[in-house]
Amino acid sequence: MSINGVISPGISNKVNKSFENKIVAKNVGVVYNIRRANDAKIEKFEAVKDLSLNVRSGEFLSIVGPSGCGKSTFLDIVAGLHSGGNKGEVYIDGKLIKGPALDRGIVMQGYALFPWRTIQKNIEFGLEIKKIKKKERAEISKYFLELVGLKGFENRYPYELSGGMKQRVAIARALAYDPEVLLMDEPFAAVDAQTREALQFELLKIWEKTKKTIIFITHSIEEAVYLSDRVAVMTKNPGTIKEIIDINLPRPRDNGELRTSADFSLLRHRVWELLHEKEVENSKGKVSDQDVAEKISKHAAL
Ligand SMILES: Nc1ncnc2c1ncn2[C@@H]1O[C@H](COP(=O)(O)OP(=O)(O)O)[C@@H](O)[C@H]1O
Ligand SMILES: [Mg+2]
Questions:
Q1: Among 28, 32, 33, 63, which is best to mutate for testing ligand 1, by the most ligand atoms less than 8 A from CB?
Q2: Nearest atom within ligand 1 for CA of residue 67
Q3: 72 lines ligand 1 (CB under 6 A)
Q4: Does residue 125 register a pLDDT over 50?
């Protein structure tokens, strides 16, 4: 299945040298113009400040942070949906991002499916933009429908599907046009807990199969730790990266025992502490990342 070779209009030729990373964000800053309640005056509101982050090729990186800290704003920048007035730069494969392009698939919190299109036609949307022929489109959409466990649903409409199924379609649609990067903004926030765990498990299987680079935003510490190679914790406004935690848990990750293991709890607790801005201290002073890593048992090492 070859659906490559299409020019990405949102990419410039400005080249950055950091090729070992898929995505390089350098000192990103976003200031919004806001109007206060009962006040006509426009004020500047700094949503994101001096945010630098490298995402490795094929990595699963999650971002957690307090509500309103700028997670979605940052992801929009990577998606190329924010134009003008921002500070800093974001590169993908060493090329400056200047706008949206099909090298990045986006999965949002709401399902954002086209209600007037069947499931198959939803999945084929990006392929139509890529001018893939009808027969190949049908083959590709069939493959991804099966991959997300929705074989047989191709002629249904979004309103006929449950929340979890809709989110599967959204993932299939993003994967179908073969982006190298998946940008996911709280994609499972609207589904029930059981479906959410099932979707996490399926996403990991798909990620292992497709080798995409994923930036995944979530409110759930458990979800971030379960899925990720690294978890980036953001500060509250103006949002920037506070710390990045390596998740040295073995892969492939099962959906049962791992979540109740001591290593998992330790990592979850570490992210929780960072989010709650507590100083991690023991009698000797500050606990370093290395101290935390050493507490993780040998079988969980890289
Ligand atoms: N278009 C906008 N205009 C003004 N303020 C905005 C806009 N988008 C987001 N904000 C503000 O910027 C901050 C960061 O928003 P957002 O990136 O959505 O946060 P998060 O995704 O971390 O919850 C919030 O305080 C939000 O109210
Ligand atoms: Mg958000």
A1: 32
A2: 23
A3: yes
A4: yes
Q: Output the pLDDT for position 79.
A: 94
- The structure's pTM equals 0.84
CA distance 119 to 161: 9
Q: Is 90 exposed, middle or buried (0-12, 13-18, 19+ CB in 10 A)?
A: buried
Which domains occur in the chain, in start order? 11-103+179-300 (3.40.50.300)
**Residue nearest atom 24 of ligand 1, based on CA coordinates:** 68
- The CA-atom distances, in angstroms, between 61 and each of 55, 116, 157, 245 are 7, 33, 32, 10
Tell me the H-state helices in 65-220.
71-79, 119-123, 125-129, 134-147, 163-176, 193-210
**Average pLDDT along the chain:** 85
Tell me how far apart the alpha carbons of residues 94 and 92 are, in angstroms, rounded to a whole number. 5
> Would you say the CB of residue 240 lies under 6 angstroms from ligand 1?
no
d(CA 181, CA 99): 14
Q: What pLDDT is recorded for position 85?
A: 72
Angle at 201 between CA 200 and CA 202, to 5 degrees: 90
Taking only the tens place, the pLDDT of each residue in 154-208 is 999 999 999 889 989 999 998 888 899 999 999 988 888 888 898 899 899 989 9
Choosing from 69, 73, 78, 186 the residue with most ligand 1 atoms within 8 A of its CB, the one to mutate for a pocket test is: 73
- Taking the centre of ligand 1 as the mean of its atom positions, its distance from the CA of residue 70, in whole angstroms, is 6
The 10s digit of each residue's pLDDT in 40-84 is 788 899 999 999 999 999 999 999 999 999 999 999 999 999 876
